Amino acid sequence: MNFQRGRAKEEPEINLVPLIDVMMVILIFLMITTTYSKYTELKINLPTANAEKQRERPNEISVLVNAQGNYVIDHTPVVFSGIEQFADALRRAGGTLKDPVVVISADAKATHQSVIRVMESARVAGLTRITFTTQSGPGG
Predict the structure, then answer these.
(1) pTM of this structure
(2) What kind of fold does domain 60-132 have according to CATH?
(3) What does the pLDDT look like over 103-135, one tens digit per residue?
(4) Which of 21, 71, 95, 98 has its CA 20 to 30 A from that of 42?
(5) Are strands 60-65 and 101-106 parallel, antiparallel or unpaired?
(6) Where are the domains of the chain?
Protein backbone atom coordinates (compact mmCIF):
# COMPACT_ATOMS: atom_id res chain seq x y z
CA MET A 1 0.00 0.00 0.00
CA ASN A 2 1.10 3.48 -0.79
CA PHE A 3 0.35 5.80 2.14
CA GLN A 4 2.05 8.82 0.53
CA ARG A 5 -0.21 9.27 -2.49
CA GLY A 6 -0.44 13.01 -2.44
CA ARG A 7 3.26 13.65 -1.84
CA ALA A 8 5.51 14.37 -4.77
CA LYS A 9 8.48 12.11 -5.00
CA GLU A 10 11.71 13.98 -4.33
CA GLU A 11 14.31 13.52 -7.10
CA PRO A 12 17.71 12.40 -5.83
CA GLU A 13 20.52 14.86 -6.60
CA ILE A 14 24.27 14.74 -6.30
CA ASN A 15 25.74 17.55 -4.30
CA LEU A 16 29.01 18.60 -6.00
CA VAL A 17 30.17 21.08 -3.34
CA PRO A 18 31.77 18.45 -1.06
CA LEU A 19 33.44 16.84 -4.08
CA ILE A 20 34.90 20.19 -5.14
CA ASP A 21 36.10 20.84 -1.58
CA VAL A 22 37.91 17.50 -1.46
CA MET A 23 39.51 18.11 -4.87
CA MET A 24 40.72 21.55 -3.75
CA VAL A 25 42.31 20.05 -0.61
CA ILE A 26 44.08 17.41 -2.73
CA LEU A 27 45.27 20.06 -5.19
CA ILE A 28 46.62 22.29 -2.40
CA PHE A 29 48.34 19.29 -0.79
CA LEU A 30 50.03 18.36 -4.09
CA MET A 31 51.11 21.95 -4.72
CA ILE A 32 52.71 22.23 -1.29
CA THR A 33 54.48 18.86 -1.32
CA THR A 34 55.81 18.99 -4.90
CA THR A 35 59.41 20.04 -5.33
CA TYR A 36 60.39 21.98 -8.39
CA SER A 37 63.83 21.61 -9.95
CA LYS A 38 65.72 24.67 -11.01
CA TYR A 39 67.79 24.60 -14.18
CA THR A 40 70.83 25.86 -12.30
CA GLU A 41 70.72 22.81 -10.07
CA LEU A 42 70.87 20.27 -12.89
CA LYS A 43 74.03 18.22 -13.11
CA ILE A 44 74.75 16.85 -16.55
CA ASN A 45 77.59 14.43 -17.17
CA LEU A 46 78.10 13.96 -20.87
CA PRO A 47 79.12 12.34 -23.15
CA THR A 48 78.91 8.73 -21.99
CA ALA A 49 76.52 6.07 -23.17
CA ASN A 50 76.06 2.34 -22.94
CA ALA A 51 75.66 1.25 -26.51
CA GLU A 52 77.16 -1.21 -28.90
CA LYS A 53 80.15 0.00 -30.86
CA GLN A 54 79.07 1.00 -34.33
CA ARG A 55 80.94 -0.40 -37.29
CA GLU A 56 82.93 1.95 -39.49
CA ARG A 57 80.95 3.44 -42.32
CA PRO A 58 82.74 4.30 -45.57
CA ASN A 59 80.56 7.35 -46.18
CA GLU A 60 81.26 9.31 -43.01
CA ILE A 61 82.87 12.68 -42.46
CA SER A 62 84.62 12.72 -39.10
CA VAL A 63 84.63 16.08 -37.27
CA LEU A 64 86.59 16.35 -34.02
CA VAL A 65 86.12 19.23 -31.56
CA ASN A 66 88.45 19.56 -28.59
CA ALA A 67 87.90 21.44 -25.32
CA GLN A 68 89.69 24.54 -26.67
CA GLY A 69 87.35 24.76 -29.68
CA ASN A 70 89.79 23.50 -32.32
CA TYR A 71 88.35 21.53 -35.24
CA VAL A 72 89.65 18.59 -37.28
CA ILE A 73 87.81 17.29 -40.36
CA ASP A 74 88.94 13.84 -41.50
CA HIS A 75 92.39 14.13 -39.88
CA THR A 76 92.93 17.66 -41.29
CA PRO A 77 93.02 20.59 -38.83
CA VAL A 78 90.60 23.35 -39.86
CA VAL A 79 90.48 26.87 -38.46
CA PHE A 80 86.92 28.07 -37.95
CA SER A 81 86.58 31.44 -39.66
CA GLY A 82 82.86 31.36 -40.37
CA ILE A 83 79.92 29.10 -41.10
CA GLU A 84 80.28 29.36 -44.90
CA GLN A 85 84.01 28.54 -44.87
CA PHE A 86 83.49 25.59 -42.55
CA ALA A 87 80.59 24.39 -44.74
CA ASP A 88 82.94 24.52 -47.75
CA ALA A 89 85.48 22.41 -45.83
CA LEU A 90 82.74 19.88 -45.04
CA ARG A 91 81.67 19.78 -48.71
CA ARG A 92 85.29 19.16 -49.78
CA ALA A 93 85.62 16.39 -47.18
CA GLY A 94 82.38 14.84 -48.44
CA GLY A 95 83.66 14.99 -52.01
CA THR A 96 82.09 12.18 -53.98
CA LEU A 97 80.61 10.33 -51.01
CA LYS A 98 77.01 9.29 -51.52
CA ASP A 99 74.74 10.65 -48.72
CA PRO A 100 77.58 11.25 -46.22
CA VAL A 101 77.08 11.12 -42.46
CA VAL A 102 78.72 13.84 -40.34
CA VAL A 103 80.10 12.17 -37.20
CA ILE A 104 80.79 14.76 -34.49
CA SER A 105 83.24 13.70 -31.80
CA ALA A 106 83.29 16.51 -29.26
CA ASP A 107 85.23 16.62 -26.03
CA ALA A 108 83.01 16.54 -22.96
CA LYS A 109 84.38 19.97 -22.02
CA ALA A 110 83.92 21.47 -25.49
CA THR A 111 81.55 24.40 -25.55
CA HIS A 112 78.03 23.94 -26.79
CA GLN A 113 78.62 26.75 -29.29
CA SER A 114 81.51 24.90 -30.96
CA VAL A 115 79.27 21.86 -31.58
CA ILE A 116 76.42 24.07 -32.83
CA ARG A 117 78.84 25.66 -35.31
CA VAL A 118 79.57 22.24 -36.79
CA MET A 119 75.86 21.41 -36.99
CA GLU A 120 74.99 24.75 -38.60
CA SER A 121 77.84 24.38 -41.11
CA ALA A 122 76.63 20.89 -42.00
CA ARG A 123 73.14 22.28 -42.58
CA VAL A 124 74.51 25.03 -44.84
CA ALA A 125 76.57 22.43 -46.71
CA GLY A 126 73.42 20.37 -47.30
CA LEU A 127 74.55 17.50 -45.08
CA THR A 128 71.46 16.41 -43.19
CA ARG A 129 72.69 13.19 -41.57
CA ILE A 130 74.50 14.02 -38.33
CA THR A 131 75.45 11.75 -35.43
CA PHE A 132 77.54 12.05 -32.29
CA THR A 133 80.09 9.74 -30.72
CA THR A 134 80.24 8.92 -27.02
CA GLN A 135 82.33 6.73 -24.83
CA SER A 136 81.05 3.88 -22.71
CA GLY A 137 80.25 4.86 -19.16
CA PRO A 138 81.40 2.95 -16.08
CA GLY A 139 80.32 -0.65 -16.27
CA GLY A 140 79.43 -0.31 -19.97
Answers:
(1) 0.57
(2) Nucleotidyltransferase; domain 5 (3.30.420)
(3) 888 888 888 899 999 999 999 988 888 888 877
(4) 71
(5) parallel
(6) 60-132
